[in-house]
Automatic annotation (TrEMBL), chains A, B:
Name of protein: Ribonuclease Z
Molecular-function GO terms, alphabetical: 3'-tRNA processing endoribonuclease activity; zinc ion binding
Source organism (scientific name): Pedobacter duraquae
Function: Zinc phosphodiesterase, which displays some tRNA 3'-processing endonuclease activity. Probably involved in tRNA maturation, by removing a 3'-trailer from precursor tRNA.
Catalysed reaction equations from the record: Endonucleolytic cleavage of RNA, removing extra 3' nucleotides from tRNA precursor, generating 3' termini of tRNAs. A 3'-hydroxy group is left at the tRNA terminus and a 5'-phosphoryl group is left at the trailer molecule
Needed cofactors: Zn(2+)
Assembly notes: Homodimer.
Amino acid sequence: MKFEVTILGSSSATPVYNRNPTAQLLNCNEKVYLIDCGEGIQQQMIRYGYKTSKIDYIFISHLHGDHYFGLIGLLSSMHLNGRIKPVQLFAPAPLLEILELQFKHSDTILRYPLEFTPVYADENRLIYENADVSVETIVLNHRIPCTGYKFTEKKRLRKLLVEKLEADGVPVSYYPLLKRGVDLDLPDGKVILNADYTIDSNAPKSYCYCSDTLADDSYLEPLRNCTMLYHEATFLQEMLDRANQTFHSTALQAAEVAVRVGAGKLLIGHFSSRYKTLQPLLDEAAAVFPNTELALEGITFEI
Amino acid sequence: MKFEVTILGSSSATPVYNRNPTAQLLNCNEKVYLIDCGEGIQQQMIRYGYKTSKIDYIFISHLHGDHYFGLIGLLSSMHLNGRIKPVQLFAPAPLLEILELQFKHSDTILRYPLEFTPVYADENRLIYENADVSVETIVLNHRIPCTGYKFTEKKRLRKLLVEKLEADGVPVSYYPLLKRGVDLDLPDGKVILNADYTIDSNAPKSYCYCSDTLADDSYLEPLRNCTMLYHEATFLQEMLDRANQTFHSTALQAAEVAVRVGAGKLLIGHFSSRYKTLQPLLDEAAAVFPNTELALEGITFEI
């Protein structure tokens, strides 16, 4: 099953030429989940060859503009392009009021259902699940209510030991039940034990997205043993005071979080416009957590 | 006196790669007036080498997103960049409510004064003037309340006939009064007639901006004899029905307007995303009004 994330923007609020504010596309089994939606996302999707029509789910972490100012334009264009398929939007409650006010004054009545689920930054909650994935909030520590999101694959089916099944003449029609872990009691009294013919699948993978946060202990629990962690790294450690003042993290702190939670891999992003080159941020993080990469625009990371 | 307009975007609502929604920078005597503010304007200004800090006046024609979705990001960045100089914003009244709601939920208290003047689409009005320019609204005919804007240079000072002044020994200290058209009665009984030493300056130039409109008779009066007319030309004439349905104009209609009002020059823009090449739009307009140009991004037109 495909489980990968594509970076569309990883700059912080102040604009820099050719660096865009935060937006990521998560592809899980060919369903597309948009995570945050900074200004310019439509141009970024065209640039990197993605269709906005494929997005069915949108998750917004908080209401600082560099994380959602591209949303009203995206939703408007979906309407103009004739979309009728619903969009599921998960975001802080006031966003609906902001969007509805803008639709009202542009005299826009969306052709497609915009299904809105308010997200609250009081406790971590399961807010969505389908056959492929579950999504939980991660309450972060920022200047305004802010939640990250944890995407966890659903438990996969068991793996069949096909050679053994064929050698013992087990009919193919039994395979789907065996994959689901069922023991089969046949009419002739014979028993086919699942444990004899299958093994456990790989553990479900998980992707944790921590958009904007002061690095502290409050949000570590849901990150434990995640396959891939995206963590903001707005500043270098030499600007720790500024990071604390603005409720942001340094690259070193992002790496320390990855170590503490036992993440498989770390992506860092939300780079301050002051850094013309990003290598020092990568170097600082990778010295502590070697399996770190920069969340560069256009790059797709397999989770 | 500098009087020129730079195009930052001239695409209509549906995004096309590397074509941006409407925004224009008017430079009048080194003061910068932003006219409409589509999404992505900050990237466009960086791309073409303009500083957002220079913008002191913003005029929004109407509340369709392709004319204002870049504004909240621009105003937010001005705040983040430490601006303290006021911004004067002229726009339909509901825009203030939209902006204030977004500032409230991002916990943003602007460091600079945002001086808001509501603009109403009921009758043409003088809404602003300073030493350089006056600005009047042009009520257009669109699906929602929409005004264009007419920028007219202030009447210039009279031109001095310097050789004659020098030959007759008129003191230089008299020049400023002569430029203003004053006759001088000297203490010795001598009279210096202004008409002997000055001639009229060039007529004030004017720029009319018609963002989105059905082409009809209702808005022609303020356009008469303007130096330069920007008129939307969303479609080719073969799509006249679609233009009428959506309260837009064709390239042919834009040219006919320019002919009827005796414009000095015509810029066309607001191109539909369906046109991969814009030459047919230019050809259609220029066949009727030869002094037509495409409002292409990055180009500066002297008015």
